[in-house]
Structure formats: C-alpha cells, structure tokens
Amino acid sequence: MTLSFFDQFMSPTYLGIPLIALALSLPWILYPKPTTRWLNNRLITLQGWFINRFTQQIFQPLSLGGHKWATLLASLMLFLITLNMLGLLPYTFTPTTQLSLNMAFAVPLWLATVIIGMRNQPTHALGHLLPEGTPTLLIPVLIIIETISLFIRPLALGVRLTANLTAGHLLIQLIATAAFVLLPLMPTVAILTAVLLFLLTLLEVAVAMIQAYVFVLLLSLYLQENV
Amino acid sequence: MPQLNPAPWFAILVFSWLIFLTVIPPKVLAHTFPNDPTLQSTEKPKTEPWTWPWH
Fold first, then answer.
1. Residue A47: closest C-alpha in chain B
2. Which of A92, A97, A171, B48 has the fewest CB atoms nearer than 10 Å to its CB?
3. CB–CB contact A79 B1 (8 Å)
4. Which of A6, A38, A78 is opposite residue B2, by nearest beta carbon?
5. Chains A and B: how many Cβ contacts under 8 Å?
6. What is the dihedral of CA B29, B31, B34, B36, to 10 degrees?
C-alpha cells in the first residue's frame, strides 16, 4: 500500500483505540484547575489572564444579552487553540483537520445564533437580509444573495478551519520530505529547504492561533447580529 | 481525501461535544478574578451624626 501525503489525516487507530479520542481528551491536562488560593502559580495566572482578556476583547462589542455566551466561546477558543497548537508537534494528530469536527462545531453554534435572532427579534434578524440603500429593482436579487450568504456561513466557518490546518500540515510534510530526500544529494539545497521549513513552522504556529481566533470571532459577530 | 470519509463523523461529533461540554467549562469557570486593589486614603472618613427619625 503506497503512502500518500493525505494519509496523515486518516483517523488513526492503535490497538483498537481511535487516536482522535486521545487527542481530544488528553490536552486538558495542560490546564490545571485553579485552587481557591488567592495567588496561584504562574501557569494558572497566565491562563487566567488569557481567558479574561480574550473574553473581554470578544464581548466588548456585544450587547448584554450576548454575554450569556461567554463561557461557551471562551471554552471554544481554548479548545481550538490547544488542538491547533499541539498538532504542530511531531507525531501528533490534529483533530481540527477533520471536517467532521469543525462542521460539528460550526453548524450547531451558527444555527443557535440564527434561531436566537429569529425567536427574540425576527424583524431585526430578517432585516439583515437587505442592506440599507439598495435600489428598488435590486431588492429581490439581493435578498436571494443575502440568504445564500447566510446559509453559507457555517460551511465557510468549518471549511476555513479545516482547509487552513490541513494545508499547513500538508506543506510541512511536503517540505520536510523534500529536505530529507535532498540531504544526501544536494546538501546546500537541503539546508535552504530546512530554513524554509523552519519559517513555515513559524507561520503555522501563527495560523493555528489566528484560525482559532477567527472562528470564535466570527461566531461572536453572528451572535452580535442576532442579539 | 480521508477527511471526507463519513464513517466516524458521528462518533467524532459526539465525542468532541462531550469533551467540549464536560471538561472545559469547569476549568474555564474555575478561574476567578479578584477585584483590583484600591489605594486606601489615609484620611479617616468623616462620620456625620445622623439622627434617625423613628417616627
């Protein structure tokens, strides 16, 4: 069986245990629960600052009704950024490269924002389908376009995260393979490729954090429209 | 692409939501943030006597 570059994304199983289960359950060891002491250790303090500042940043533009989502979105951010960053280590599996996982989060959360908007303020929510100042003749066309763009949102949300992470991992594997293969043949080129690999890994670290942030930010924006 | 394989998708959905709902929010909520310490002024607060009208 020839190995293709996409095989790194197959949900691996070892001794009957799907490794995605381990990849999803073990990272939370890195987040110890804060004690009831006034002063915690450095790790917990830093994590607390991160959660606090992040929640403040995301919920500042939201009206009070949306603040109920604070726990959910903070947990989601923690979830995504941990999974993304840990996936950059060698021999790890990144669950967020699986489309099923990303859609599993994108669709229900987006649907929740839409339903909240439709139940509490239906006129306001439907008003988003027609931008202000459209010429009268364009109104039907624009409503169709806006409805399509509304329904594409969960797809875009899920696929954006999947594609970014998958592409990143694929590039890392490709360039690492190139550097490895070139080493006995053309060492100078191999070293240049290794430098490129290093820079790419730095980019992937940034992408991992940014994509997690963008996911949660977009959800908060969809919530903002409907709350 | 193996990600498009629908076979374990439901298991992944259930398991990831399970972890997301049970493990993470308790850890997030356990972080409490005390109020900022305020500088205590050295002046003692002026206490004005107040006659409480009971009737």
1. B31
2. B48
3. no
4. A6
5. 84
6. -110
Q: DSSP state, B47? A: P
The contact set of A with B (CB < 8 A) is 6-7, 9-11, 18, 20-21, 24-25, 28, 31, 33-34, 38, 44, 47-48, 51-52, 71-72, 74-76, 78-79, 95, 97-101, 104-105, 162, 166
Complex ipTM more than 0.85, yes or no: no
Domain ranges (residues) in chain A: 7-226
C-alpha separations of A106 from A31, A111, B3, B9, B19 in Å: 24, 8, 16, 14, 16
Cβ contacts of A48 on chain B, cutoff 8 Å: 31, 33
